[in-house]
Records
---
Amino acid sequence: MRILVLGGGGREHAIVTSLVASEHAPEVFCSPGNGGTAALATNVSITDADPAYIAEWVEVNKIDLVVIGPEAPLVVGTADMLAFDGVPVFGPKAAGAHIEGSKAFAKDLMERHAIPTGGYRVIYSEDEAAAYLSEAGAPIVVKADGLAAGKGVTVATSTEEALNAARAALDGYFGPAGETVVIEEFLEGPECSLLAFTDGETVLPMLAAQDHKRAFDGDEGPNTGGMGVYAPVPVVDKAQMAQMVAILEKTVAALHSENIPYSGVLYGGFILTADGPKVLEYNARFGDPETQVLLPLLKTDLLDVVLATAQGRLHEIELEWREDVAVSVVLASDGYPGSYTTGKVITGIEEASKIDGVTVYHAGTQLRPDGTLVTSGGRVLNVTAIAPTFAEARERAYRAVECVSFEGMQYRTDIGLRALMAAGEG
Ligand code: GLY
């Protein structure tokens, strides 16, 4: 079987790693891939903005399955184009990916189907924003409706700050993504991601995971794409897990009832409020860095799961998970999430990978023709460790981090600490 994986981050390196380990021994291509996928798959360069070009490449290269990692190719209809050509594809079509591509669509869907989420208003002008804010007060959250590379969210502590954020978005700061703005209730409680495989009928939840969005220890500093993650999440009890699963099932059923078949991963970003889990947002894909802890814990052959999902026979699959826990630490370039420089030589990955339970996933790395591995992005590496306890997983992960070096390397030192305390290991 010949598989094409679209994307080039740590998530895609984790996907490629699991696919290559499949007992079906597929041949894997990755576009654009990174320095890590280069060692396992053939990196190719196909523009992910053009579904027609991807479909043509897939046909010419006799690809049997396409796995779409990031949201951008999903929202522009890559899965639609491939499905039209009869190619099995893992990832929703554009109508389903709209659940991530438009926050207003997601909120309206939840309202129509009584899915628990915070109160909100969809805003098209500054006057509407001012009127709603005077009614709703602060703290409050302002979001650009469309995809804004994770930068379109402002948690405002005053209505003035919220109005400024709404005005900036409406004035074009995020381009077309901010032409519509969603202002929503600030929900209080721990954040938790629950991802599920679904073929539009069957919904198979993964383990709960917890991302660390802020740049610095203690959840200080600016928001990032994620600086580390762990799974499972000890603060999630059985009742909360069941409620989150029920919400994901209800969401898939809601889409189905509106003639939107949804297939791939449905990612629920939840806040565990005092009134139960509420949806903060949906993503239409695997999370990054959540995938870098979920896939190492998955015992079931990933290729069987993605193929069954793509072919609408997910009911045949039962997911099996290791008893272990996983912690992943993101190593980032100096200055990230602001501006940073690239091209820094990376050393020590081989030594880090020798530590029991450790896998180093590449995100922003590039293998130069002379064999030198250099940084090529903000988030550079994800050092994942699995172990029976969070204390051991953290010890392994941070011992591995000590082995790795590149100029300006920055990382959080508290990834998994909350889990360790909540699990009673502290
Ligand atoms: N971990 C956040 C995301 O994947 O969007």
Note: The longest strand covers residues 264-273.
---
Amino acid sequence: MTAKIIDGKTIAAKVREELAQKIVSENGQDMPVLAVILVGDNEASRIYVRNKKKAAAEVGIGCEVLEFSDTIGEHALLEVIDELNKNSYINGIIVQLPLPKHIDSLHILSKIRPEKDVDGFNPYNAGLLACREPDAIVSATPRGILKLLESTGIELTGKHAVVIGRSNIVGRPVSMLLLNQDCTVSITHSKTENLSEIVRQGDIVVAACGCAKLVKKEWIKEGAVIIDVGINRVDGKLCGDVDFDAVCEKAAFITPVPGGVGPMTVAMLLENTYEAFKKQQKLKTDHVCQCGGHGCGCHHK
Ligand code: GUN
């Protein structure tokens, strides 16, 4: 068997194109706006943020990047978030991770207003997803993964999905999302015993552990669907968590690195921002304020 490539780049371009059309046709002068908080000078984070800003501009979403030195304290960062939460011009807020070690990331993320938490990293949104609440804002990479799986046309119900990695950003939310799609989900991690045997049971394998080429051909069930979330650099070359060339000989579908999950993350972040904007617009127009005005932008409890 030679695996079919799941072309994330093309699927993401289509998501962005449809979004751009919706934004132009539905919203006139009104533009969704995303605020991105970037702390310190992590090179990878800078590249990710630059890509997000560029992609946002292309679909008609405003993007304001707020940069801070890595000496910023937690209290000062919380004040920034508080301001953005209150600012009715801002529809989505994300904090580029990782944050410097002296800052408690979860504490910061938990202070983003859930309606503006377009990364879905606030524990409130993570909890809604775990409770199968449709109102949850679901983080971008897991949403993108689901879209890639849907593009294969395979039925998810009853399938055994093996997730490698248990991070708050990918492993945990994608496991919840797959469970909500009626998959049987095994969550594995660095302490899992007999990892290869568990992966071999997977009809779907999501590799999100950050170990270059960890997943070998011998670990794969014939005809499995492989989603590779890893972005590793080996000898200056990008590669995923899956031994791509060999695994291609056994899988039915596989995502490449680069060009698989990565482009979907940005596209789904933009979609989350647009959806947050629409919900906030609706709340504004539905809301009759105590000052007597509709959609006046006041912040009454
Ligand atoms: N760092 C690595 N991935 C992500 C992501 O999806 N969002 C944010 N905010 N930070 C990240």
Note: Residues 261-286 form the longest helix (26 residues).
